[in-house]
Structures are given as C-alpha cells and as structure tokens.
Specification:
The complex is a heterodimer of chains A (407) and B (114). Chain A contains nine helices and 16 strands. With 407 residues, chain A is of the alpha+beta class. The longest helix of chain A is centred in the last third of the chain and has 14 residues. Chain A is globular, with a radius of gyration of 37 Å. By secondary structure, chain B is an alpha+beta fold. Chain B has one domain. In chain B, strand 1 and strand 2 form a beta hairpin. The mean pLDDT of chain B is 94. The chains are: A alpha+beta (407), B alpha+beta (114). The interface between A and B is medium-sized, with 29 and 23 residues. Strand 6 of chain A pairs parallel with strand 4 of chain B, so a sheet runs across the interface.
C-alpha cells in the first residue's frame, strides 16, 4: 500500500521554505506551510495566502514527517488543494515535490508539474499530479511540496484554503509490521517505519527509537505481545526495573520477565516491584512450570514462605522437591524450624518417617527441648505421643500412631 | 453555487454590503475589493467566498440562472455590448499601500455572512 499523507492544521516543522524550487519572485507575502502526515487528522481551519501583485510566488507548502524509507519509488504524487476562498485573477502555475533532510535542507527534486494554469477564482478542490523519480533517501528525509501561484493583475491577491485533503504518493508504505503477524505498525504514532525494519533486523536497539515509548505503551496495553519483539526482553523490562511501569501491568509479565530472571540474566531482587511480582513467580512455581531450584533468587521465594506470606501448602510441588529444599535450609541451621508456617506439616512428615528428623539439627534440638529427652537415645520401635500435661510421652508403636525413624 | 451576498470596500474608506445597499446604488468609482459570499460551506461551517480585486471594472449583470458578479479590464462599451445595456459597472481605483493592505486584511477576515 502506498503512503498517503493527510493535510493537517499543524504548522510544518520546516516552516515556509522554497526547498528545491526557485519561483520568480520568491516567497509569497503570507505563505502557508502545513504538516501532512500518514494517518493525520485532516485540518479544518481556513488559511489565507497572499500573492504580491503581478508576482509569481510560492504560496502554499506541505511537509511530511520523516518518511522512514530509504527508497522512494517512482510514480505519481497527487497533490490536492481545497480552495475555500477563491480569488479572481490568481492562477496556480507550478507544483513541486522536493526531498529535504531532517535539517530542512533540500536534497533533490523528486518531480514537478510546471505547465499549470489553474484558476483560483472558483472554490473547490484543485488536483495536480506530479510524476516523481525514484529517490535514494535517508530514513529521516521528508517530502516537501511547494505550490507556486501567479497574480495575473496589478494587485496583491489573497485566497483561502483549508488543509483537509489527501496527498497520494507512490512510496510503498513500510511493510505492515506484524510483530506476531497481527498488528500493523501504522497505528503507532510517530513511528519511523523504516527504522523499524532495522530494529527488527537487530541493527537498532528498540530503545534508540523515537517512538520507543509508544511501542512500549502498546506492549503494556496488551496490543503487542512482548515475547515477539526482538529486543523486547530488555527494553520493557528496563522500564519496569526503573519503576516506570509496575511489572504486574505487563500483559505477558509472567513469561518473559520471569524467564529472564530464571535464566539468571536479571536478579529478581533488582526488580523494584518484585515484592508483588513474586506472587506471579509463585504462580508459575505452583503450576509446576519451573522447578524452584532453577531460580537464581529462589531464596527470596523461600524467604516469603518462611515469613508466612506464602502458605507452604499452596505450593503443589512442595510435597516433593520443596520440602526437601526447605529441609536443607533447616538442616543447615539457617532457619529455626518453629518459624516455618508449614512447621507442623513438616513435623508430621517427619513423624511419618518421610524426613529423617535426626538430620535436622535445629528441629532435633527443638524437639529435644519440647520432649525433654534425648531423641538420640531413643530405641527403635518407640514413638512419642502427645498427652495432656506434657508435649509427648512414650507409647507402644501401633499402626494408627505416627512414627519417627532414625535416619 | 449561488451568490448569497457581497461586501464592498472603497478607496475613500467607505464600506457597503448587500444587506443594506443595492448594487446599483454603490458609488460608481473607487472600488478596492468586493467579496462575494456563496451558498456553499467550508469545512469549518463558514460560507465559501470569492475575493475580487485589482481590476478596472466590477459589474453586476443579468445571467441565465441569476446575477453575474464579474470583473475585468474591458471598456464600459465592451461590457455593455457583452453583458447588456443594463449592466451595472463600478470602477476600480488605486490607493496607497497601507490602505490597500488594511482593506485586504479586513476583507480576508470578513468570513461570516450575514
């Protein structure tokens, strides 16, 4: 699809310049230049341009934003001017299409139509076709169109136009970038489409784009899946890490961010809102997608378990691997057993013989204190049962009581 | 498109419009600018216009589908021959630049009708 520019009420960034033209009498007394952009809002305010008496002057200009393409195809540029205040004896003589750089310096004549004699005495849309030649451009080059008028009598002539028309170009629009095949880039404001080509090719980091924020906004809004942006795993995360965007508002926060953390590229602790984000991490863990042991910062999660923020029982894989991990901490003496929320269930497991309590230095010590006897001296076949007035007492072993084996 | 009204600016500073003055009662000499208002609308809702200036003669004549408001540098005789004996001619006049620029500004800004 070819690029179509919409005339707007916005003043052209380059202002009123002659660009690649050289009219006999220079600029009009009051020239008017407006921005014409892809997807822009058509203007609604009338502008007046005055051509000095008997002169041939550049009176109206339209400028595009950076085209973002390094090749401008040859073909027809169709320029329209909606004359809403006509003036007798004024004639549109020439229309020029120029290529200017980002500093508004003319680079080349794209094309022109100089054989015109279109009266401005009648209101309505005046249409002029200009044949343009192919351009090798910088991505930041702009289209600058100049309309030249002649006042055919001996008085200055003023006419009015409303910048609300389309300007057709032969320039092929950047391919509709579809991060995953669905979302065209064109709705993203201020996105130099040519630059995106390079981004997608990996030549330019996403963060270097002027429209970087716009793209991220769309990612954050869920329009663009984060995972399909080539360098997305870094850029949006950086914004999150900087605290600009709460991690939990990222649509695909769960996968992309956590995976990077899991891979060790980003320490979970460096994520400002990891306190909240870790809940998301836990969801993954709960679902069994990611082994807890694979997390570089898995101790943070354990800390939260130890602090009671996350009930141990809610962790599906706590039955198997998690308990062992927790036990390792306990065995190592890092965490007193009694501060564990899942303390009682762990003891139950120990009583059932699944966990060798004797390998648990702190729990052993605690139990010894509570029972008041040395567990190390106990004989096999004996268990300890809770009775009124004491923590535990000796009873014969049976099928219905809990057992504790020496490891 | 039809003419729904006009305003006229003269070199002596006087101004007229079709609400209060009939064309034939305009002064015969001294026209600087005549603005015609049309029954079409601009995108902003104001009437379309045509600004006539810079010639020797401004005239109103009978046309097939209504009045003709024209302008040219032909002689009165030529105009009568071409547009009929009852053509109403008003003559243009040069003025100094400050006055002309002021009148042009007023005419350009006179976007509403009536």
């Amino acid at each position: 699809m070819a690029l179509i520019l919409v005339q707007t009420d916005t003043v052209a960034p380059c202002g009123t310049i002659l660009a690649c033209t050289s009219p006999l009498d220079g600029l009009a007394v009051t020239p008017q230049a407006r921005l014409a952009e892809d997807g822009g809002d058509a203007g609604s305010g009338e502008l007046s341009a005055t051509i000095y008496k008997a002169d041939t002057q550049a009176g109206v200009m339209f400028e595009s934003p950076a085209v973002g393409q390094t090749t401008w195809q040859a073909g027809t540029y169709t320029v329209r001017l909606n004359v809403t205040t006509a003036v007798a004896l004024l004639v549109l003589r020439e229309v020029h299409v120029c290529r200017v750089n980002s500093s508004c310096v003319s680079q080349e004549i794209v094309g022109n139509n100089t054989g015109l004699s279109i009266s401005m005495a009648i209101t309505g849309v005046k249409t002029v076709d200009v044949e343009g030649v192919e351009q090798s451009a910088s991505a930041t080059d702009r289209i600058y169109i100049v309309l030249i008028f002649e006042a055919t009598n001996h008085a200055s002539l003023t006419f009015g136009f409303t910048p609300d028309q389309n300007i057709d170009t032969p320039i092929a629009e950047a391919q509709e970038f579809v991060y995953s095949g669905d979302i065209p880039l064109s709705p993203i404001p201020d996105t130099p489409k040519g630059l995106m080509d390079m981004v997608y090719a990996g030549d330019i980091p996403l963060s270097a784009l002027p429209s970087y924020v716009s793209i991220l906004d769309r990612v954050y809004a869920g329009d663009i899946p984060l995972a399909v942006l080539p360098d997305a795993p870094v850029a949006p995360l950086e914004k999150s890490y900087a605290g600009d965007i709460p991690l939990i508002t990222l649509p695909d926060f769960s996968k992309a961010i956590l995976e990077k953390s899991y891979a060790g590229a980003i320490a979970l602790a460096l994520v400002p809102n990891s306190v909240y984000g870790l809940f998301g991490a836990n969801e993954f863990i709960y679902a069994g997608d990611i082994p807890l042991t694979a997390l570089p910062s898995y101790s943070s999660i354990l800390d939260r378990v130890y602090q009671g923020a996350i009930p141990l029982a809610l962790m599906p894989n706590s039955i198997s691997s998690l308990v062992e991990i927790l036990q390792e901490f306990v065995y190592g003496g890092d965490i007193p057993l009694f501060i564990l929320p899942g303390y009682s269930s762990m003891l139950e497991k120990a009583y059932e013989g699944d966990i060798p309590v004797l390998l648990t230095p702190s729990s052993l010590c605690l139990l010894e204190q509570q029972v008041g006897v040395s567990l190390r001296a106990k004989r096999p076949g004996m268990i300890y049962t809770k009775k009124p007035g004491s923590f535990y007492s000796k009873t014969p072993r049976s099928a219905t009581t809990k057992s504790m084996r020496k490891g | 498109m039809k003419v729904i009204g006009w305003r006229a600016w003269y070199a002596d500073g006087s101004k007229y419009d079709s609400k209060t003055t009939d064309w034939k009662n305009l002064p015969d000499d001294g026209v600087l600018i005549i603005v015609l208002y049309l029954d079409g609308k601009r995108p902003d809702g104001k009437p379309l216009r045509r600004i006539n200036s810079g010639v020797d003669w401004y005239f109103k004549a009978r046309g097939l589908k209504g009045s003709i408001y024209g302008l040219n540098n032909d002689t009165p005789e030529e105009n009568k021959k071409r547009y009929g004996e009852d053509v109403s001619l008003k003559q243009g006049k040069w003025t100094d630049e400050p006055t002309m620029y002021q009148v042009e500004k007023e005419a350009t800004e006179a976007v509403d009708w009536p």
